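Please check this record.
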Amino acid sequence: MTNHRLVIVGSGPAGYTAAIYAARANLEPVVIAGSVTAGGELMNTTDVENFPGFPEGVQGPELMESMRQQAERFGATVVYDDVATIDFRPGAHGLVTAMGAQYTAESLILATGSAYRELGLPNEKKLSGHGISWCATCDGFFFKGQEIAVIGGGDSALEEATFLSRFASKVTVVHRRQELRASQAMQDRAKADPKIEFLFDSAVDEIHGEDSLTGLTIRNTVTGERSQLPVTGMFVAIGSDPRTSLFADVLTLREDGYLAVEGRSSRTSFEGVFAAGDVIDPVYRQAITSAGSGCSAALDAEHYLADRDQAAAEAPLTAVAGA
């Protein structure tokens, strides 16, 4: 059992940025980064061209490695393990990892992120970053003049399609049903775009390509008929799921399942527990917004700990005065 002022659960831009700020505040944070998921979703991303400070772009894994090194430079400790359980206790939160390590922490920052939903088809993971993406804002620029597909029928899918039409020569929205789930305003905007076409009652059956995506096999969900869709890009927009299983039964969640925080702060419903990144953000989901969120969480945790220290320092004086 080791005792710490701050433990950060999760890594990625939110966790590592929180670690940088907390370490610079001499809190000596421990980052339990994950055994497989360390670095977050950017570890599966190739070129990141919209993160400030990199005019030529940067590889996702390289960016995460730089953030980790920066956090460690200031005194953070990064542990490649997974948190198995958390016992929430004000001022003495207990954590046990999959490898059996035990920690107590005066404060916690939860940066567990979220996971994009996948189609679950062969080749999907293999071609991730090689024609298959889950983020149009991140990767749309790389598909200039190409024909691409967007999978989904909600607001996110149509927003992605509308954004991608700026770059692609043609965008085909593939949706399992006859009716879209998106808001009417979003539907009207997408249907008015001359570059966007729709395949209704359709699902992706196969993904083709060795080194990069070359096309899709589409199945009509009503007739079962199969056809080929020759695209070099596919954006999957069927939703994401916040990683909240560790604390869903203790901390307050929003109606959409994301972790709730107070106003613009990072404070959760439990004393001394803060949150950052995609686990609290179903809207923006960008590396830079996650990093900013991690900064906020570290500052909130620092202020919380400073208030605890002040209260502890004043307690003996109060006791003497009362005597």
Q: What stands out?
A: Residues 287-322 form the longest helix (36 residues). The first strand starts at residue 2 and ends at 9. The chain has six helices and 19 strands.
